[in-house]
Amino acid sequence: MRGFLGKASMVKKMAMTTAGTVLLSTLLVTTAWAADAGVKHTAEADSLNKLQLFQGTDRGYELDQTLTRAQGATMLLRLFGWETTAANAQGLSSPFTDVPATHWAAKSVGFAFSKALVHGVTDVYFAPDASITGEQFLALTLRALGYAEAEPQSASELAATSGLLSADEAQLIAQGAVFRRDEMVAVAYRAIQTKLKGSTRTLLQKLVEDDKAVSAEAAVASGLYKAPSSDPMDQIEDAIRDALK
């Protein structure tokens, strides 16, 4: 009987330890991603800045500031290497009456709309100065990753199944009362490490190898990218590793 009680006590302690670990993990995720937890993603902002995928303002990164819908669209184009293409596009205009050709984000919004990345709040209004929500930015990011079906109301679930975020992180982003540049940076940092839909390659690999929007040197220095090997055996190993992921 003593032995049985000893085992039961051990099992109980193990269960309590496991529950405590799960609770601590949840609390850490909540603290790191909650909008009221202060600025948490300066290191990620630094990494994105060195990759030339994120810029601050004349006052720094301003990670504690909220983001407008126009700013969200512009950030998305920079993140996916389309900013220069959009800026140089000829005859490109926004279809929305509240984003005329004179608006600073007209080309960004027009280009993003032409790629089916952004939708208006109506057929003719985009609401460029309205705050973008976490769900809306998740939907934009997922569409750019190839998930054309992404909509704000289902974005958190799709973000989890696509590997962009964990289920807990996606829920915290979706349920947050505000969406700041800090949370946007966190999503963007994960996005460059996420595989494009139907591909074995990440967004960062595409930006380096196809689009030449990020230098290989900067990508390697970030620790998020491994330059392709010219050794055939290494290439075979990498292909097998990708297939098993």
From TrEMBL:
The keyword Cell membrane does not apply. Keywords: Signal. Residues 1-34 form the signal peptide. Residues 92-155 form the SLH domain. Pfam families: SLH. InterPro entries: SLH_dom (IPR001119). This is SLH domain-containing protein. The lineage of its organism: Bacteria, Bacillati, Bacillota, Bacilli, Bacillales.
